[in-house]
Design goal:
elongated, alpha+beta
């Protein structure tokens, strides 16, 4: 299967078109439901789960027969190929899709879910910038930007007596950047420039220009490689709260919360 072109990397469209390259039926469920399947496309507007950000959900319909719909409940990138997993809206839709190899389809991402996931993911980036701005020398190792208790994890430990004061300092910095309506910028950067333009560079990156997201509070701000979706401005993150700092072993977890609907 050919690699899937990820359209969200260069634009924020919630709708688009693609060619249906193939589909793979799922095993029937215990109740006999055989409408589940995985679709493969040449390109997609769906953000596949990754980088701590949940997958987009939405609909895929046959362009020339829009009543026949496939409901996407999950999108995963496996070796460059996005697996759009979900179920057909009806047995008739299933039959129409199986007869439609190579035809054009219409993609529609759930706008509310995308907006929430974008804000949660961007909030994690803003939190990480604030960690550095207050002078914590911690290396981020994991981000979890799902609605149920999002967090960023770091290698390193913070003494128990310092955690509550640090929460207050982090919150103050968050409020400053949000109040200043700090912009988020997305650029594709030559790999040779990454060390100078990023706070840290992961060991394994795809070949070619690298997509770098920066919370641009100063001209000298550095970013980090990222394939997720982002807000244009920190003002969209009003209500972001630092909830707790927890240390387990050699790992520090900073948890945060964000209103489910945009302010």
């Amino acid at each position: 299967m050919q690699p899937t072109q990820l359209l969200h990397l260069t634009r924020d469209d919630l709708e688009g078109e693609a060619n249906l390259l193939g589909l793979e039926p799922a095993e029937p469920s215990e109740d006999g439901d055989d409408l589940h399947a995985t679709l493969f496309l040449d390109q997609t507007v769906f953000h596949p789960q990754g980088g701590g950000q949940p997958a987009d959900v939405g609909d895929i319909a046959l362009k020339d027969a829009p009543a026949h719909v496939f409901r996407v409940s999950e999108a995963r990138n496996r070796d460059g190929v996005v697996h759009h997993t979900g179920s057909f809206a009806s047995a008739e839709a299933k039959l129409a899709f199986y007869r439609a190899h190579g035809v054009e389809v219409r993609l529609v991402v759930d706008a509310a879910a995308r907006a929430l996931h974008t804000r949660l993911h961007s909030a994690g980036h803003l939190l990480d910038v604030c960690v550095r701005r207050i002078g914590l020398a911690l290396l981020p190792t994991k981000g979890y930007h799902f609605p149920n208790s999002p967090f960023v994890e770091y290698a390193g430990k913070i003494p128990a007596a310092e955690r509550e004061p640090l929460i207050a300092r982090l919150q103050e910095e968050v409020d400053r950047l949000v109040g200043a309506e700090t912009p988020f910028t997305v650029r594709h950067i030559d790999p040779a420039e990454l060390e100078a333009r990023c706070e840290f560079v992961p060991a394994h990156l795809p070949p070619g220009p690298v997509r770098v997201v920066t919370v641009q509070d100063t001209e000298a701000s550095k970013g980090c490689p990222c394939g997720g979706t982002h807000v244009a401005c920190a003002a969209d993150l009003r209500g972001l709260r630092i909830e707790r700092i927890r240390v387990k072993g050699k790992t520090t977890r900073v948890s945060y919360s964000l209103p489910q609907d945009a302010a």
